[in-house]
Design brief:
The protein is α+β, with helices and mostly antiparallel strands. It folds into two domains: 9-112, SH3 type barrels; 120-406, Alpha-Beta Complex (Fumarylacetoacetate hydrolase, domain 2), CATH 3.90.850.10. The protein is built from nine helices and 27 strands. The chain has helices at 49-54, 71-75, 78-92, 127-138, 212-218, 231-237, 260-263, 319-326, 355-358, and strands spanning 25-29, 37-42, 45-48, 103-105, 110-112, 120-123, 154-156, 162-164, 169-170, 173-176, 185-188, 192-193, 196-202, 219-227, 229-230, 251-253, 258-259, 267-268, 288-289, 292-298, 305-311, 338-340, 366-367, 373-374, 382-391, 394-397, 401-406. The strands form seven sheets. Strands 6, 7, 8, 13, 14, 16, 17 and 22 form an eight-stranded mixed beta sheet that branches. Strands 9, 20, 21, 25, 26 and 27 form a six-stranded mixed beta sheet that branches. The protein has a five-stranded antiparallel beta sheet with strand order 4-3-2-1-5. Helix 5 packs across helix 8. The longest helix is centred in the first third of the chain and has 15 residues, at 78-92. The termini are far apart. The structure holds manganese (II) ion (MN). Residues 122, 195, 197, 227, 340, 342-343 line the site of manganese (II) ion (MN).
Length: 415
């Protein structure tokens, strides 16, 4: 696959996240009193889909783009998804009539959550991550839980805590217990961390168990996802029901939904299985994607250091497998459900997707380009995830997924 040329010149640069090959979907507002509405990124611009729809350029279906979410459109199903992509590709191709009147500069807008998050589930699907964390929490002999090679493990998170890139995140308070203390204390988290993940967005509902192929067909697209994690709260609370308040402060997603169609040329296989999977988890084809990922950390007022570089293909379970497993009980899935992949770590030290692993629980602090060190996040730190699949002379990028750590409240129970 090579670059598809657009009349929008900035979309033809090999460095843009948003060439014609991508066409990711978001929700933006222009600050002039107009409502947030749907748009598609092209180069450094956004095509206003509400305006395009008003001009009759997107077919005669009932309007679905004059709302601040993509749920209504997702609900229309894969045929409509394909039709819109074909229409937009034709509208924006080199040689089509240029319509600069429908464009808004990305630099001048505010981005919003691109969809109403119906429910949020987070998984634990990188073997390197699970092995590293398990080694720290339980020792090397019990690193991988006995079920890990059979089940895509997950926990039910909170849709209410999902925020769009650019939102500041406040350091949470919680119950902490030092390893040598008898009793816990209620205090601000001291081990605040990130988790580099991908988020899969469910675009079709289910009512009963679905196969891996059906699950893949239900996925509308992907975003970058930072599952902010309070490690000290987590270490004390997680047994036996899994993480709870450690993961509830916030989860940040990137503002552009990169569609499954845009990622199609970058599909790749999950790794060799050490233990055969049960039949219902068998994949009919490649269900992971070759997406380069990185994490940047910038202390307040300082330059950014890239602290991790990894790839989505390092996962042991795909989002389609996770979604299929999620439905085995008959659990209904809804349009707008968000599935976090789990932290994406590779085998090498620089490929670890969380500070917990990068600093090995604080024992080996990471040195930043400024000379400062980090075991966990400090107040004022800005965290930025980036990701892109690389084609011949172009990239299908996700845009930035960024957030800054605000200091904990002085006392959360003080009026
Ligand atoms: Mn996570």
């Amino acid at each position: 696959m090579s670059l598809m040329k657009s009349w929008m010149e900035s979309a033809n640069s090999p460095d843009t996240d948003f060439p014609l090959n991508n066409l990711p979907y978001g929700v933006f507002s222009t600050g002039d009193g107009s409502m947030p509405r749907c748009g598609v990124a092209i180069g450094d611009q956004i095509l206003d889909l509400c305006a395009a729809e008003g001009d009759g350029l997107l077919g005669d279906a009932a309007p679905v783009f004059d709302v601040p979410y993509w749920n209504d459109f997702m609900e229309l199903g894969p045929e409509a998804w394909g039709e819109l992509r074909a229409t937009l590709t034709a509208l924006l191709s080199d040689g089509a009539d240029a319509r600069p009147d429908l464009l808004v500069a990305q630099a001048e807008v505010q981005m919003h959550l691109p969809f109403n998050v119906a429910e949020y589930t987070d998984f634990y699907a990188s073997k390197h991550h699970a092995t590293n964390v398990g080694t720290m929490f339980r020792g090397p002999e019990n690193a991988l839980p006995p079920n890990w090679l059979s089940i895509p493990i997950g926990y039910n998170g909170r849709a209410s805590s999902v925020v769009v890139s650019g939102t500041d995140v406040r350091r949470p308070w919680g119950q902490l217990k030092a390893p040598d203390a008898d009793l816990p204390v209620f205090a601000p988290c001291k081990r605040f961390d990130l988790e580099l993940e991908m988020g899969a967005i469910v675009g079709q509902p289910s009512d009963g168990p679905v196969s891996v192929q059906q699950a893949d067909d239900m996925i509308f697209g992907y975003v970058l996802l930072n599952d902010w994690s309070a490690r000290d709260i987590q270490a004390w609370e997680y047994q036996p029901l899994g993480p709870f308040q450690a993961k509830a402060a916030a989860t940040t997603i990137s503002p552009w939904i990169v569609t499954k169609a845009a990622l199609e040329p970058f599909r790749c296989d999950t790794p060799e299985r050490e233990r055969p999977l049960l039949d219902y988890l068998a994949e009919p084809g490649p269900m992971l994607y070759d997406i380069d990922l990185e994490v940047g950390l910038a202390p307040e007022g300082q330059i950014e250091t890239t602290i991790s570089r990894t790839n989505y293909r390092e996962m042991y379970y795909s989002s389609a497998q996770q979604l299929a497993h999620h439905t085995t009980s008959g659990c209904p899935m809804r349009v707008g459900d968000l599935l976090g992949s789990g932290t994406i770590s590779g085998p090498e030290k620089h490929q670890r997707g969380a500070l917990l692993e990068l600093s090995w629980g604080g024992k080996e602090p990471v040195t930043l380009d400024s000379g400062e060190t980090r075991s966990f996040l400090e107040d004022g730190d800005r965290l930025t995830l980036r990701g892109a699949a690389r084609g011949d002379g172009y990239r299908v990028g996700f845009g930035a997924c960024t957030g800054r750590v605000l200091p904990a409240l002085e006392d959360p129970f003080q009026p």
